[in-house]
Amino acid sequence: MLRVSLLGEQVIADEETGAVLTRSPRSVALVAYLVVHAGLAQPRRLIAGLFWPDSTDAQALTNLRRELHQLRHVLGEQPSLAVTGRDLCWLDTPTSRVDVREFDVARRAALAAADARGVVTHANAALAAYRGELLPSLADDWVLTARAELDRQCVELCDLVCRTPSGDPAAALAAARRRIRLRPLEETGYRTLMELQADAGDRAGAVSTYHRCASVLERELGVVPAEPTRAALRRLLAQPGPEVGRVAGAAAPGLVGRSAELARLGETWRAAAAGRAGVVLVRGDAGVGKTRLVTEFAGLARAEGAVVATGRCFGAAGRLPLAPVAEWLRTPAVQRAAAALDPVWRAEVDRLLPAARPVAGGHPTVDAWQRLRFFEGLARALTAGERPTLLVLDNAQWCDEQTSAFITFCLGLVPDAPLLVAGTLREGEAGAGAWITQLRDEGKLTALPLRPFDAEGTARLGEAVAGRPLSESDRTLLHAATGGFPLYVVEALRTGASPPSGRLTEVLRARLEQPGPAAREVAGLAAAAGRDFTLELLTEASDLDADTVVDAVDELWRRRILREVGGGYDFTHDLLRDAAYQQVSPPRRWLLHRRLAQGMELLHAGDPDAVAAQLAEQYARGGRPDRAVEHYRRAATVAARTFAHADAIRLLKEALALVRARPPSGNRDRAELAVLEALAGPLNAHQGYSSPELQRTLERSLALAESLDSQDSALTALLELWSSQFVRGRTAQAHESAERALSLLTPGMSPALIGSAHFIVAGSSVSLGRPAEGLRHFALGAEHTRGASTWPIGTRPDIHGPAWAAHAQWLLGHEDAAVASCAEAVERARAAGHPYSVTIALAYAGITHQLRHDRPALSAAVAELRGLCDRYGFAYYREWALVLGGWTRGGAAGLAAAQEGVAHLKAEGAFARMPYWLTLVAELSAPEAARATLDAALAAGQARDDRWWLPEVLRLRAAHDADPGPRLRAAAELARAQGSVTLLRRCEAALAVSAPS
Length: 997
Description:
four-stranded mixed beta sheet
């Protein structure tokens, strides 16, 4: 069965297997053209002229034949495609399913149905088939014509469902909302939805729908709703008066006095639209009009046909990582373009959007490589369309680390995309971080400072708000009192004070005194909610009745204290929110936060992940630290799913502070242990194994686990502590942790824990110069974890084990076994298709090849290793590649690379194998430098108990002695004591050469 999807996406697939047969835009468009004219033969000459208008008739027909040949190869003997020498035709057959045809058949059935139930059933089937616009990524004339007709038919069906009395109010409501999405500037859809909501008893929803309608019309067209729509609101509010609208004096003025700045933004936009992706930041103090300017700019770009998506950063602790990016991706135009993405990239987008939250993955360190692929999927989605794209980022001073990292990544991935990020940045706020400096240094950032108005600009804005001319004295006083800050000017005049008196905070307080008592109370509740609250949440959390809350929100909206935002509400300015919150007494705030938390839990019972961070913050402020800790942990898990490890760390530290504030008890210790165990993974992924903070976290976890007699937790802490200690070069401490882990093993424990304990004993045994012991424990670890996918320390047991065991095999003189073990690890890693596993296998294989002096094999391994590290950001193994690659290359360039790798390892605090790395640098160095480097290697090995390579260090250092004999004999004795057969042979060979002297 063939499945042709043309609505909302562009793909031809096998229905049974799901296999994609083609996504070729030309092939899919050819099928789409025939489908739109199904049953009617289309002349070849007509099709050729439409699809290749710039070619000659003969060449266009040749192109059509070639495309048709490729299409027949994809479709096989598909009877739906009828081909003759003169024309082509698409036929409805049982062997194919086409969404456009399913939509049309169901639509016709709905229009012909004799009863209400039949009408709604068929109409809903048609609406279900209409998953988006026709061929969303194409803009050919015939596509636009067909798309507009299908869109009109879909709107017609929505109207039909809404007016048909079927006894299914949910279907009617869904159809009304669908109509609004299709025709956001037509008031008919809003009125229909308001009536349906009112009939369903959802007065709050109906009022919110009016607010959304009014906001869209004002923003896009600069007009107010028509009288029928205003009358519908009056009926809802039971107001007999002739007019419902904004309060007098609360008009929204057009943009005043920013023509130069707007022109500068236009220049930046034209450069970006021409293929120079970048960022423009409008910088200025609070209230200077940054958001207003960028909003005007975005409207102009939208009018020119650009895709415009808006996202906001939040300063509250309850913010979600990548929240602005999620807002961008939810923009209908972006969704339509992204629908044509390959499934592998759409799956990455689904990680972020709530509709498809993935189950928590594996070990954070191991899964960290997927972060760049995740970013690439998001970038592809945002740039999938053919139109220039403007991404608005409001309040960039609060931009979370993950969002800023994504922006820099995106601009680096698609530097020639027609893309511009336009942000607003408040001066004097902490948080405008390194990403801005990086973009400026790379020449991708344009900074646009915004100053307060001069006296003339202040007067013009004041007159626009007041709706009347101002006297010369009022103009002078207005500028003197407000300093030319637009927010101050607007809010002062909305209070009725002309000229204003008092500071901005006093003006804002006066503005908040204008509404009635119920509206003031709801404003305080809204301020406690923070950003993006819904009317449903306010009615749930308020102790006022629902109708009173609805009326209060409507009054706040009409006074422009609140504004409609994406189906919810927010304050018109952050400073207004702050002022409203300050007017709530501390005891009252405590109560409001608790009620808001309970309301959120009730409203999001089916998906608490979506509001976990907000719930945590509300419960923390509402005096329920126990519930706050629970939700901080949940929010950290959500953050880690999108690789936002810095945010996960921040959230878990909030939880940790609340836990540690409790009185000492066993329950408190158990809660602290749970938070610390959750914290270790994100710390490891974000800061690396060598992080001192990670080691402190693990040591505290171990102490708590032992005091609570929790063996599994103690063992897990020891396994992770070993990794931290080992990478930091604390070999003896690491081995003590490994032996403690081994002593905790009991028969009932999981094989993964038992195998992991043997693995870490094996690793530190090899570094301590006990290769035989190490090899034995590697074998035991493999035996217990056979078939396991990961170990608690994060890596694959069947890959990391043999990769490292190869070094022990080589030391013991089993060269063939070492080569086989190394090859086995690489082969398994490639079969697994897991980049981190391949990286580990290649890194350890590189050491094996270097030990054997197999330069061709080492060069190949290093080249692949470096590529993986560069692509996925594996910093630790990138340094291995630098040192090993430098040793292979030789010369001054090789020495510089090796020294750079060693310097990076030291800077990261990663001192494991430092004697070995320094030896490779010494082999590339001049005699004097080599001697000093080898001395440093000896000192490092002795200080850090990193002994496995010391016989070789001594052997090489002996070459710089006047009499190498004593040092060579010491090297041989040490190799013999360690059982390092290969190193002993090297020492004995060197002694034989030096014997005559």
